[in-house]
Write a structure and sequence with these properties.
Rossmann fold, 10% strand, two-stranded antiparallel sheet, 505 residues, 3 domains, Ferritin, 20 helices, alpha/beta
Length: 505
């Protein structure tokens, strides 16, 4: 099979796909139309791949259709008759085109049950509620298929070389959708730079099992995988769980489009019903990362009080704030010798008292907390509040906790701030070297945290106070005197002009 160097332009592919969104923009919310776009991208990819491989087999085996068929049955994804993107495009003028697309997706699912079962069934291409009445819906779907029929959107292996182009396009689209989805964006996407920072801090190793229990569209897992691939490591396993059905489907496709077919992504509520279970216990992972929903109300307090997996033995979080529910779950699912947790949290997690304070105390007393990293405000879609990253480790060599205040180093964009490469590098280097840096980082011993009543508020450890310049009163007075003289002179000039014009002052 072909394995040529990619000959397509990433930016051009991204732009074509983003322009295809115009079909739905203003009619369907970004949180909904992203599913149509991303599913069709997936269908186009498997169609182009299937077609190229079929043509190669025709050259090799001539008209031996049975042999070709047997070889195609070994394809990564099977494409049933009539389900190729070109079949859909050829029927773009049909009055039931939405139904035709739905049927094709169902057949693709059925032919690839082990990998794709349930992935497409959360999205209805024949939905009047989302896509409008029949005439309008048909017009939109026709335009949509025409956009994807762009000859420059050839996703066959000989054109793209490897899956990076499609995976990058997928991530690009999800990021763009998140930017337009407002508050709901946080449900399915963590900004790429934050995911990159978290992946570098947690430093996944060869052979690691990596889990995200609130994985959204899977971008954080992909960053961890990329971190390993960048270092030439391919021996790892990805796991995740996601509550929202449509977002779970996006995560599944995201794994496939990044070439991680073995990833296990489960659909369900991690707190109420964890699905990553083995021998009646939660599975253990070397790395657990997440950007769970901030201070989730109704997170499952009642169920947690009778948790069969004993995840909340350090205490039950409050009913209306689920932050420590996710933290507790994550800490309880890492391996005993070298397990690491990286989690994004709101700042309240660092200092809130009552039940959260008791859980925090026990985590610190158990010597699990390794670092607290303060992030800039306005990094996340849907909320401007600043957040922090907590790193927990089992098997720590000492009792220190690294505090890093990275809240003032970022690129100030108009709508949303972002971490630059140099900002990420500085945080990661500081965390690894564990060296104090004035007004930026401080290595605190556990005894100091105890003295602060287990309060992790970063300013208690990293002094960012800037002394104001000393004011020279004599210089200020001279400036005031000069301003008064200038004002008097201007007033006299105005008075003179008025008198010349005949106005009585």
């Amino acid at each position: 099979m072909s394995n040529k160097v990619n000959t397509v332009d990433q930016t051009e592919i991204n732009n074509i796909l983003w322009q295809a969104c115009d079909t739905f923009r203003g009619i369907v919310n970004a949180t909904d139309y992203k599913n149509y776009i991303l599913i069709m991208l997936f269908v186009k990819y498997i169609s182009d791949t299937w077609e190229e491989h079929y043509q190669e087999l025709e050259k090799e085996y001539g008209d031996d259709s049975e042999r070709i068929k047997r070889r195609l049955e070994r394809e990564r994804f099977l494409l049933p008759d009539g389900c190729h993107f070109k079949n859909l495009f050829d029927q773009r003028n049909e009055s039931n085109i939405g139904e035709i697309i739905n049927i094709a997706l169902e057949k693709i699912e059925d032919a690839n049950k082990a990998k794709l079962e349930g992935v497409f069934r959360n999205v209805d291409f024949n939905s009047e509620a989302n896509l409008g009445k029949t005439k309008d819906r048909n017009g939109r779907l026709k335009s949509f298929l025409q956009d994807f029929n762009n000859p420059k959107l050839d996703l066959s292996p000989s054109k793209i070389g490897n899956l990076d182009v499609i995976g990058n396009a997928y991530e690009y689209l999800i990021g763009k959708f998140a930017a337009g989805a407002g508050q709901k964006a946080g449900e399915f996407y963590t900004p790429a730079e934050v995911s990159e920072l978290l992946a570098e801090l947690i430093d996944p190793k060869k052979g690691d099992r990596i889990c995200d229990p609130a994985c959204g569209s899977g971008s954080l897992l992909v960053k961890c995988a990329n971190q390993l691939k960048k270092n030439g490591k391919k021996d790892f396993a990805l796991y995740g769980q996601e509550l929202n059905g449509q977002t779970w489907a996006l995560a599944k496709m995201n794994m496939f489009l990044h070439g991680v077919d073995s990833a296990r992504i489960e659909w369900g509520d991690t707190i109420r019903e964890p699905k990553l279970i083995k021998d009646d216990a939660t599975m253990k992972f070397e790395v657990v990362v997440a950007n769970p929903p901030f201070s989730l109300d109704k997170w499952g307090h009642e169920e947690a009080s009778n948790d069969p997996y004993n995840r909340f033995h350090r205490g039950l979080p409050p009913k209306t704030k689920g932050d420590y529910a996710f933290i507790s779950h994550m800490v309880e699912t890492i391996t005993e010798d070298n397990g690491r947790v990286g989690v994004v949290v709101p700042h309240g997690v660092l200092f809130r008292a009552s039940s959260e304070g008791k859980i925090r105390k026990k985590l610190i007393d158990d010597n699990l907390l390794d670092a607290v990293v303060g992030l800039p405000s306005n990094l996340f879609f849907g909320t401007g509040i600043p957040a922090a990253i907590l790193i927990f480790k089992k098997g720590k060599k000492d009792e220190s906790v690294m505090f890093i205040d990275a809240s003032r180093e970022y690129e100030d964009n108009k709508n949303q701030n972002r971490l630059r490469d140099k900002d990420i590098e500085k945080v990661v280097t500081t965390y690894k070297t564990r060296v104090n840096i004035d007004k930026y980082a401080y290595k605190a011993e556990r005894s100091e945290i105890i003295e602060n009543d287990y309060n992790l508020n970063i300013p208690r450890y990293v002094d960012t106070f800037e002394e104001e310049e000393e004011v020279d009163i004599n210089v200020v007075q001279k400036d005031i005197n000069q301003l008064e003289l200038d004002l008097s002179s201007i007033q006299n000039q105005v008075k003179s002009y008025l008198e010349e014009l005949g106005y009585d002052s």
